[in-house]
Design goal:
By secondary structure, the chain is mainly β. Helices cover 2% and strands 45% of the residues.
């Protein structure tokens, strides 16, 4: 799913997709023309190894109307190994790709979707890196901060005239299993937990990346076992479900 500008303004408005938690991120200082890169760290140490949840951060580009996002999804263990699913998508019409991890279309609409499964330790923190590699072409990478292993999630090219990354957007926790169901009950939401750490950037002149707040929205506000706790290293530990 993606969260629109309208959803950003109406933080508690229900969404047609079932995001449960929203967050806002920004940098205190950025160059006037934007960011060349941004890194979003996530930790899923206490998340069950089961498909269903998506932990994501969105981003915008100057001169481009639609958002992109990147994030992680837990997956079931297989053959005694744990797996992490990483995502990197653009919702902008006219976005193109030739990368083997990517395909045209995003959530049933325009854009490009890229994804990769990696054999990963859930106790490790993973950096989701969004970076410009040439012109209007951007790469998404997932980096294990313990082993330092880096895996390209995908690459796509925005339409001509697209600028650098805009300072600030929002993130979310989504239970996408509900998207394909005619109805749901809030107390049936399974438990999960993840930490969203403050964003960073290598862009010259950029500093002070922070997640400013975390909040519930949608049709399960006050009914989904939500809590958000600041962590000492910067960011929030988020829990939902039962």
């Amino acid at each position: 799913m993606k969260l629109t500008a309208a959803a950003l303004l109406a933080l508690c408005a229900p969404s047609v997709s079932f995001a449960l938690v929203g967050s806002n991120w920004k940098f205190s200082k950025v160059p006037a023309d934007g960011l060349n890169d941004v890194t979003f760290p996530f930790n899923m140490a206490k998340a069950p190894h089961k498909s269903g949840f998506y932990f994501a951060q969105q981003f915008n580009f100057h001169n481009v109307a639609e958002v992109g996002y990147t994030g992680l999804q837990p997956r079931e263990d297989s053959s005694g190994k744990s797996f992490v699913h990483a995502v990197f998508s653009s919702f902008q019409g006219g976005t193109t790709t030739t990368h083997s991890n990517c395909h045209q279309g995003a959530d049933g609409g325009s854009g490009v979707s890229c994804a990769v499964d990696i054999n990963g330790n859930y106790n490790h923190t993973y950096n989701l890196v969004v970076e410009n590699i040439s012109g209007t072409t951007w790469r998404g990478t997932v980096v294990d901060t313990v082993t330092r292993k880096s895996t390209v999630v995908g690459e796509w090219t925005l339409p001509a005239g697209a600028g650098k990354l805009v300072n600030g957007q929002m993130g979310f926790v989504e239970y996408y299993i509900w998207n394909g169901q005619p109805s749901h009950t809030c107390n049936s939401l399974p438990f999960t937990e993840a930490t969203f750490y403050n964003p960073t950037s290598k862009t010259g002149g950029a500093s002070g990346g922070i997640i400013t707040n975390v909040y519930e929205y949608g049709d399960c506000v006050g009914k989904a076992g939500f809590s958000a706790t600041k962590v000492a290293s910067g960011g929030y530990d988020i829990k939902v479900g039962f």
